[in-house]
Fold these 4 entries.
Entry 1:
Amino acid sequence: MKKLLLITLLVGFMFQLTYSQNKIWDETEAQKTKRLEWWTDARFGMFIHWGLYAQPARHEWVKNYERITNEDYQKYFEIFNPDLYNPTEWAKKAKAAGMKYAVITSKHHEGFNMFDSKYTDYKVTNTPYGKDIIKEWVDAFRAEGLKIGFYYSLIDWHHPDYTIDRVHPQRVNTKEEYDALNKGKDMAVYREYLKNQVREILTKYGKIDILWLDFSFPGEFGKGRDDWGSVELIKMVRQLQPDILIDDRADLQDYAGGWDFMTPEQYKVDKWPEIDGKKIPWETCQTFSGSWGYYRDEYTWKDNKQLLVLLIESVSKGGNVLLNVGPTARGAFDERADKALSGMGDWMKLNDRSIYGCTQAPESFVAPDNTILTYNPKTNRLYVHLLDYPLQKLRLPGYQGKVKYAQFLHDASEILMSEPRSHNRGGDNKGTGDLDLSLPVAKPNIEIPVIELFLN
Ligand code: GLC
């Protein structure tokens, strides 16, 4: 008996020990929800991938894909001069599209710094442009009332002490080859550089709302938490900016406080992602076309409806969308990006109530065919998004008695409700608990019309 008690105590103690070891940040679930509240309400943000790679204009991974050396990549540094750069204009476009926050690349994998860092010469202030792009960007976006985020690449294809790995432009095949190439390189030096730079971006520009670190690839010839010094790094970040939101790519998934939200990239989730049965905050990051940086010859652009469905569907599963623009090397959004943004803005202007503050609908509400539901728990309103406009009647299965009033969201015009009549659609629909909505024959001039239901 005594032995059993001792074992139980010991196991309990060890559990406590591992748990407290894997803890970076002390906060309750409720505190975390509160900290993330502005972001979960906002639902929609702009990602901006901008760097030297805008000049080759054939993917932000061009240095890797074409195995370009530092020497050959240098020509982009020497001519970088975005003469049309006007971040106020960018911020206004983001806002007009309905976006509430924005995240910009302060450094991407190429290693070039878009900000003025005292730890390197490889930075924008040493190019012909000569000014701190990040500072101008922060001032402009903040002035427009948008929340501010920094993407910072953990990967660095320029720093001399960053060891060659399997995603490096100079990657090789065997251990011997890697050892030979990495002789004399010291990741500890890079680790320090990375920490210093993250400290810089989090202390020079005021309150930063999001830090987007990218990315880890543990395993053979890969890199993960120990290479980045992730635990120390995130501890520092939390200390410097206690309200900040951090993505999940520093390889600390098993650490409490090691990350705040999940980042499904370029795919739609099937359902609200869960860990141990608990729904978790998530944001999908997506491009208009295939690449993040400006890619002149890429033509697989998503259309307006696809982009809207992406946003609505994400909200319907409790998530956010971070939609990317890759500005040109002159510092402008190209016309395709402008068109995509304004298409979303046209819809958002009249329908954003079904997005902001909304989330997954309660399980008791089933989505009719070809519709997506979102729900605002504060106002108790349900939004039915009509992906394929029905002919005159929309049947809401089992909604009878649950709805007080129905209207189109875009013009607040009433939609009449009725109990299905028995001869309708050839079946006996009386007593089913369904509810019919009478829609006008002509589809309103809205890409995806939304019906707003005031619930009982
Ligand atoms: C990836 C890519 C990158 C892009 C990022 C955005 O990890 O490496 O180019 O910045 O995803 O999510």
Entry 2:
Amino acid sequence: MEISLRGIGVSPGVAIGPVVTFHVQAIEPPRYGITDPVAELSRYDAAVEKVRFYLLRTKDRMADEVDEQHASIFLAHLVILDDVALRPEIERRLNAEKINVDFLVQDLIGEYSKLLANIEDPMVREKIADFSDVGRRILHALLDREVDSLEHLEHPCVIVAGELSPSETANMDMANTMGLATDEGGRTSHMAILARAFELPAVVGLRYISKQVMPGDTIIVDGTNGVVVIRPERATITEYLAEKRRQEDERRALIRAGGDGPCLTQDGVQIETFANIDLPIEASESLKTKCMGVGLYRTEYLFMNRDSLPSEDTQYRAYKLVLKTMAPLPVTLRTLDIGGDKMVSYLSERKESNPQLGWRSIRFCLDRPDIFKAQLRAMYRASVHGNMRIKFPMISGLDELREAMASARQVREDLTARGVAFDPKVKIGCMIEIAAAVVLADKLAEECDFFSIGTNDLIQYALAVDRTNERTAHLYDPSHPGVLRLLKQTIDTARAAGIPCAICGEMAGDPLFTELLVGMGFDSLSMSAVSLPQVRAEIANTRGVAAKRLAKTVLSLGSAQEIRELLVQRSQARATLQLYRTDPAAGGE
Ligand code: PEP
Ligand code: MG
């Protein structure tokens, strides 16, 4: 009988294929007495060297084949490998207890993992995976056994696992991986980021899936809806195959229909459509969806999934790669936006009770000018390789904007004094994500080059709804009239001041809002690359006059429900109209 499970869809699309299960091989080394602790310690040192060789080789391969960020995962593992606490403890116990080193290593991994597991911080929990990963490799080296790996898969398959560690994910045979399904994991886990970057359908948080499948079982992973079907019946496979084809055809047709370059409404108004990216490798992927550049590069991902700050040079290389890939198209680099739900363990000094309202984003950067200026230096140095813009996140008022601008100025002066080349014409913008910034938009517009509205945060701050809290998710509503009026106020202020104003939150990628946003006056939208084809098609199907009329009606309403109903009606009407245009006979039935 087929089993259908619901989890968290972290990467859209449908994959259907045979299961390859990935279980971390449990090793139970025997416990026995030894007479020569020195010889036993040498065995340990030799095993560590073997692992070091593997990690260095993998790090270099990752840097060549993927990017520096993924290579940095292995640097972090090298740091754990050289953890000063581990060797002395092993030496002490070898001398005191005179038992074999493999048993001691296993015992210490268990002990440390238990200690870390009691800490609530999710970032520390992620470290358990790193720590166990390294420990397992040492054990395998001691016992001269191969570590299970997903590096070489014999055929295309869907990988099912309890969880996937950073090294397992980074080493995966991407050519044969069709999709992923795991017991554990969240939206910001490394696996999720990678799955999106490689457009692999993925569902995580499935609890016990790894115990419910056998290798070779057929499985369906529906990453769009967060559903997995194990051992599907023939009718279900047929249904999902049709859905997969439908999604792929729709995407291809949308990409074709969207044409190249600027996207025009029916009456010829040009709307710019940009991609949001989290990792440098996504830049080339986003080009396939005919984006006009990158409207938001979330640079904080370069700081995540590692144990220490990326150096200025590492940052420079990542920014240069994105700028060169996209050139001559523009790329807007956002300065470090950590905190909230994007915790960076080595930078968060203590746990906050309200992280979304806490020490995050530009507040963090202004408190840590060393980190902020190193990032700005890396950005300006990279600016000669393409068409770069910079934007500051979470600006709440003029003082913050001025302080951030002053840092950028100092960096430019410093580079000039040192004779380092940079593009002096880089435009600097301000993200509008806090209600106070909307109210002060006229003042902010006088001192920056452009606005970019981050609706993900603006909605959470305007409605006082934590964007990560599942219990209040139904209250997090982009159709709320309060939110829509804030958007309208911002675009009107920007227009009056003569500066461009874009939207780069998820709302920009939701086709339900496309006509409304165009009608409000937005002519620049930035979204995940997967949403681009559909939004471009919506734009091509929109008429300026009707869009303006829609915006006027919507902004006169006071109920979110009424607004949503109206938008759904409009979207159905547009779809019918499109049907008439492409196939009058079908529409006329
Ligand atoms: C936003 O807040 O809308 C945004 C684009 O930034 P992030 O989702 O990274 O906070
Ligand atoms: Mg934001």
Entry 3:
Amino acid sequence: MPTPIEQRYIEQHPRSAELHARARNHFPNGVTHDARRMQPFPLYYTHAAGPAKYDVDGHRILDYFPGHGALILGHCHPAIVQAVTEQMARGTHFSGSTELEIQWAEWVKELIPSAEKVRFHSSGTEADMMAIRMARAYTGRSKVIKFKEHFHGWSDYLVAGSEGIGGIPQETLSTMIVLPPNDISIVEKTIRESGDVAAIILEPTGAHMGAEPILPSFLHELREVTRRYGVVLIFDEVVTGFRTSRGGAQAYYNVIPDVTTLAKILGGGLPGGAVCGKADIINMIEPRPGDDEFNRYRRIAHNGTFNANPLSAAAGVKCLELVATTPVVETANARAARLKQGLNDLLARLEIPGCCSGVASLLFLRLGVEHECDREICVMTPEQERLVNDQRRNHQLTLSLLNHGVQAGIRFILTAAHSEDDIDYTVSAYEKALTEVREQGLL
Ligand code: PMP
């Protein structure tokens, strides 16, 4: 029996239901990304503009998952559309070098404090794979420490510790060490006892885009310990780069890693990734004349048909230029602050325990737990996490919000295209959705 919220969702979205029935013949679960699995079916979209996208049944949906975090300018920003359209007409692939890729790297270096040298890829997964390989090649050590629940794409090494590790040899997984975050003594003990740790990689605001926050003090401690033991510190700034601040989480917290990985905003809405950092480490790609041993066994060979492709470079250059020279980050942050305040006021008014918290333009709604926090970095106990992650309640909330024209649920990624009116609309949609979820006895 569908719930009242599900029933309404089904009634409002007949064309999406039809398309999903067709898609199920082609794709596992009928979708092309694990995060798009959705019961009873996901929505299908036709076009987008600014803060919103439009589904096949004609609804306008305010988007708080814009391009999985790539679209800090919102959808179809005119300057990006123009840059990409013009480049399309000039050529999409020269199987050769362009001035655009130089400009792209110059913006990365201008903005990201740790970037001395840069290598472009097509995704964050690739950039993270390359980063740990560089660290291994550079240090001559084999182990990599990551933290529980931190996401670094879907490569064989970096999914260690998470679900869905089918097909990965145990030999591969055994080179990864998965530790709990926020406890520097465990990290230091592990490095000392192993003697073979090449790198530590983490999401610098915490797992799942900051949903399980890292304490800023832990970042400083990691920097100190990794420096002392000669371990390469890698910040995965695929989400936080150009968002937590113009210079990412590293500039925001003033902790400069050895290597940084970037994607999402980097590509201005087109596919793009990069690994950047200390020149000595990134230069593990450069052959050394006359050093056969290095070139054969230590150098990192790196090809990739679409590395720094002109379309992504054109979009990326324009996007980073706007981030650097206009108040993109500040506007997204101001909208986030308004949303945070609006939702916290709403929770208080409806007497629903929980909070909306987060740093810069990434916010998280934590429902069902009475607690104190500073509305920035909300660290929960495992038991509180369990209550907050009540899948059934959160799923009903997500569906109800879609019924009211908002794609969000319990996570919000803001853009500079969200207006104050959009935020106020969102808060009133939450009032309706939370009330409906409560009527179903889930709050
Ligand atoms: N790192 C982080 C922190 C991410 O959130 C993601 C994707 N959401 C990735 C890496 C992988 O990036 P991509 O999807 O571009 O491969």
Entry 4:
Amino acid sequence: MAEFDLIARIQARAARRDDVVLGIGDDAALLRVPPGRLLAVATDTLNAGVHFPEDTLPDAIGWKALAVNLSDLAAMGATPAWCTLALSLPEGDALWIERFLDGFLALATEHDVALVGGDTTRGPLSVCVTVHGFVDEGRALVRDGAREGDDVWISGTLGDAAAALSQWRAGGACEPSLRQRLDRPTPRLALGRALAGIASACIDVSDGLLADAGHLCAASGAGAELQLAALPASPALAALFTDETRHVLQAGGGDDYELCFTVAPAQRDAVLQAAHAAGTSVSRIGRIVGDAGVRAMLADGSAWTPPRHGYEHFR
Ligand code: ADP
Ligand code: MG
């Protein structure tokens, strides 16, 4: 199938919004930004074999390509509006594109995101999405606002996606609920919005909790002490892995797309109310300290050192 026919299929299925003056079909999209709001823009690329296993189904690739981008807007407390899609495809496979769009557009529809343009080329399978959203000036959740004494919180559960990846790499069957979390992460948009005005800093966890909490701390000029025992785990993760492996998956794994955020202790009730309103669970997992670096603590108060074999295995 030719590039033009693929684009026509995409155009036929793309949803519309009133603020899209001109969508797919011209040289550029024309979009109306609400007066007085800031435009929040984020881009992420997924490459086959690097960002998802080669056997990932096309609808999961579509879902995940948009989800990881929406997760970045969630971490800013922004509301998504539009996206573009740059596709590199090994062949013009109409069925593949339709299944890809099933996943991509299901998530787009859920969050009222219009696909307004993109690019379609031949090459190794790669999906690059750019999302655009809005946030009120002064209300964005940035990385650099954490202060010593703030609590550190995390949404949802950690480690499921890394667990699925480790099962896949070991050549065995993936536990379905874990694989679901690897293939179809949930961007925490409602929570991000609800945390505006409450959280002092926020980041989404894509590269692993310790790494991403480290980025937040470095930006804030602070450090953190996180309690491994407090890290929220799904029933499947808790049932299938030893504590030691679970800690490696949860602290270092990545692909979680949960929000890690900091809040002054006086605001604990406000956090729980925001989480309740957003329909997303949250857990308090540690606190911000003055010394730089992120330390993961065991229940006995000693600092945890990730086991080398574990880290190598999950790299
Ligand atoms: P140009 O050569 O002017 O860049 P293209 O032929 O690449 O135009 O694209 C034609 C139209 O189709 C443009 O509006 C572009 O944004 C849109 N488009 C191309 N590929 C995609 C895609 N994968 N998803 C959404 N829109 C696309
Ligand atoms: Mg083009």
